[in-house]
Amino acid sequence: MYVKTTKRENKSGTVRYLHLAHNEWDPAKGRAVPKVLFTFGREDQLDRDAVKRLVVSLSKLLEPGDALVATAASDLEFVSSVPFGGTYVLDHLWRRLKIDQIVARVGQPKRGRPRDMTTTERVLFALVANRALAPSSKLAAADWITNDAHIDGLTEIGEQPCYRAMDWLHEVTDDLEKQVFDSVATLLNLEVDLLFFDTTSTYFELEEPDAPVARDDAGRPLHDSEANGDANHGGFRAYGKSKDSRDDLPQIVIGMAVTRDGIPVRCWCWPGNASDQTVIRQVKDEMRDWTLSKIVWVTDRGFSSAENRRYLRQGDHAYIIGEKLRSGSPEVKAALSRQGRYTEIAENMRVKEVRISDTDRFVICHNPEAAERDKHMRKQLVAHLQELIADTDKLSEFKRGEVRGKIAGKPGLNRYLRATPAGKLRVDQARIKAEENLDGKYLLRCSDPHLSAEDIALGYKQLLEVERGWRDMKQIIDLRPVYHRLEERIRAHVVLCWLALLLIRIIETRSGTTWPRARRELQRLHVGTFTGPTGTFQQVTSLTKPQRDLLAKLGIPHPKQVLDLQPPPR
User: Fold this and answer.
1) Which secondary structure element, helix H or strand E, spans residue 42, and what is its range?
2) What is the DSSP string of 166-223?
3) Helix/strand number for the chain, H first, E second
4) Whose CA, among 224, 353, 435, 507, lies 20 to 30 Å from 393?
5) Gap between the Cα atoms of 38 and 561, Å rounded
6) How far apart are CA 479 and CA 200, in angstroms?
7) What is the pLDDT of residues 425-438, one digit of tens each?
């Protein structure tokens, strides 16, 4: 079946007519002759809308796949389709933050010929986008870049260029972090009066930790010419106190500073045996080099020591630090024993300030809902303890010792256990009463004389932004497993995760939605590749309303419908 054209001559000239026809065999003529099935009329008066309706009606008689082939141009071939929206948005933010320009600047040698950083910058962005969209090993990331993503300016890549880009990133990390922060602070008008800092750890499936090498005070390896007898020695992946409850495996320690809006401004890496009590001083020194104005450091109780507090007060800086309620220190006891009224600052928060020091202010925070949870949990623990020690008076001293040893391995229960002089096991009623006074409370120490008690409490509550950052690093960006053995590549991997988290947080703060939800919507926007006699072109699928709304909130223009058009090879 085909479209047949006939001509007729009239006073105005030649007129062409269009017919739908097919060939039938004519036995008398001994050949196929055309048979007209339908006449469309004059070509110059063709009702094209009517033709479209006819094609659509006929295509309904076919299977969906056959209908697509039948209605497409016979000489046009659909080659492939990959998600497009995620990389498109991330790349726009990457360029808006001028990270592409920063990479070109920090990558140039101070002497000699300029280096072509175009490919390195594109590979670096692709690796960051991979962490945000489909986190995987660098080998799998190279395959993802080549086959499953659209990266502007990078059609395919191998594994080795990814490693070379990471090695370069490790060399320039300090300069890159500083310039990225300056760009982000300018673009977003960041408030850095409060900086929240916390650490986490990530473990490695190793049988043995790394061999010890000479290191400086910041935990960085020293060259042989720099090492001396006073240098510290230790491996990078080393045993330490794991925050993932995997003390049996080597680990590294990672630190991150975050603004009150959750924007991560910098990250650090230390050997796995680094102590929270010492790393905070290095963090303050290195952030001071960024010439920031006054900063109030907000950290949890793991960093609270007299030496750390003195260090954080140096210069025009201050701190808000959580205190351990059960530390037994004279200051904590004095703060908890002071009388005074609480002030309601939120539906589930009230505060009371007490003065017991000339340099520090103490704020007691009380959460009624948390107090009820603490009370409920304590009742359950005490009831379980009573079951365990019931009838133990009848046991021998040896058997009672076994019960006591079993309870000692459970800190929550052991807290309420006491032994009489005769070795009998009893519930410690005095301890229960003391714990009742701590229900729903936490204690804050602040060195800033100008912050109100409400600002101190709310500022510390925002420390949850760092914890949210660690959760997203481990669950969305997949910080681990780390598929690297060399220390410099492990450090570069952490920087890639930090850059991905930076872009994600900007999207979340601008759009008002979570990254998993935004990512799911963006990845529904695809780019298809078509080829035909006139060449190869890429076309983006039509935007849905949620996609248009998301781009509008982020201030990102709609993508061009046709991205690329390549003529056929001659």
Assistant:
1) strand 31-42
2) HHHHHHHHHHHHHHHHHHHHHHHT---SEEEEEEEEEE---SSPPPPEEE-TTSPBPP
3) 19, 20
4) 435
5) 36
6) 11
7) 999 999 999 899 89
